[in-house]
Design a protein that fits this description.
The protein is of the alpha/beta class. It is 47% helix and 15% strand. The longest helix has 15 residues. The structure holds ligand LWBT4IAB. InterPro entries: AB_hydrolase_1, AB_hydrolase_fold, AB_hydrolase_sf, PcaD/CatD.
Length: 255
C-alpha cells in the first residue's frame, strides 16, 4: 500500500512521521509543520489507508495493516528510523509500531489516543451508519468530539473546515478503520515498547479521556511521560497547537 504523503523540511534532518485521527487527512497537522521544519526536522505527514489521498482498499482493515503501511512508507523513503507522532488512530498505529517494529521507531508521541477503545458495538454501529449514509452523517458529531464548545463558537470557520474534512473521507475507508479500532487491544503489549514515549491528552477529550485512556498508556509503557493540555478536546493538536507543538518539540529534541 503506497500512502499519500507530504514531506517537508531539510532532507538530511531527523524524520518525524505524523499520523492522524480517524476521519482526518494530513491537513490536520498543518499547525505543526513550520515550527518543526524551522528546528531542522524532516516532517512527513501521511493519510492513513482509506483516508485523504491514500488508496481505499475494501475492508476489513486491522491495526497491523495500518502499521505495515507506515513501515512501507519508511522503506520507500529510505528511512531506517523515524520519530512517530500520532493522534488517536495515528497514536494507535504508533503504539503498534513501537511494539512490532521497535528498531524503526526513534521515539513516540501518542496524542489523544487509547490502547483499547470500546465498546465494540459503538464501532459496529458507526461503521454501519457510514456505509449506509456516508461520512457526512457522522461529521458534525465528530467535530463536537474534536473541538471544545468554546472553540467551536469562537472559530466557526475552522469547525466547518474540519466538518468538511470528515465528510470528504471515503465511507469504506472510514468504516473499515472503525473495524480496526473495534478489534484493537494493545493494553497487555504496552510494556514491550522501548521507544522514549510522550503521551499527551486533552483535558476535555470526550473520546479518549486522560483518566480512562491516556493514563493507562503512560503507566503501561516503561518510562513514558503524560502531559494533559487544558482547553483541548480530541483534536488537541489543532485546537491548542502552540502547547502541543511545544511538548512535541521538547520530546523530540530530548529523544
Ligand atoms: O471519532 C472518535 O470517536 C474518536 C476517535 C477514535 C479513534 C480516532 O481516530 O478518533
Amino acid at each position: 500500500m503506497k500512502l499519500h504523503r507530504v514531506a517537508e523540511g531539510p532532507e538530511d534532518g531527523p524524520v518525524v512521521v505524523f499520523g492522524g485521527s480517524l476521519g482526518s487527512d494530513l491537513r490536520m497537522w498543518e499547525p505543526q509543520v513550520a515550527p518543526l521544519v524551522e528546528r531542522g526536522f524532516r516532517v512527513v505527514r501521511y493519510d492513513a489507508r482509506g483516508h485523504g489521498g491514500s488508496p481505499v482498499p475494501p475492508g476489513p482493515y486491522e491495526l497491523e495493516d495500518l502499521g505495515a503501511d507506515v513501515l512501507a512508507l519508511l522503506d520507500e523513503l529510505g528511512v531506517e528510523q523515524a520519530h512517530h507522532v500520532g493522534l488517536s488512530l495515528g497514536g494507535m498505529t504508533g503504539m503498534w509500531l513501537g511494539i512490532h517494529a521497535p528498531d524503526r521507531i526513534a521515539s513516540l508521541v501518542l496524542c489523544c489516543t487509547s490502547a483499547k477503545l470500546g465498546p465494540p458495538s459503538m464501532w459496529v454501529d458507526r461503521a454501519r451508519t457510514v456505509r449506509a449514509e456516508g461520512t457526512a452523517a457522522v461529521a458534525e458529531a465528530g467535530v463536537q468530539r474534536w473541538l471544545t464548545p468554546g472553540y467551536r463558537e469562537r472559530h466557526p470557520d475552522r469547525a466547518e473546515f474540519l466538518r468538511a474534512m470528515i465528510a470528504a473521507v471515503p465511507a469504506e475507508g472510514y468504516a473499515a478503520c472503525c473495524g480496526a479500532i473495534e478489534r484493537m487491544d494493545l493494553l497487555d503489549l504496552l510494556p514491550k515498547i522501548t521507544a522514549p514515549t510522550l503521551v499527551i491528552a486533552g483535558a476535555h477529550d470526550p473520546a479518549t479521556s486522560p483518566g480512562e485512556h491516556a493514563r493507562p498508556i503512560a503507566e503501561g509503557i516503561p518510562g513514558a511521560r503524560l502531559e494533559v493540555v487544558a482547553e483541548a478536546a480530541h483534536l488537541g493538536s489543532y485546537e491548542q497547537p502552540a502547547e502541543f507543538t511545544r511538548l512535541i518539540l521538547d520530546h523530540l529534541e530530548r529523544a
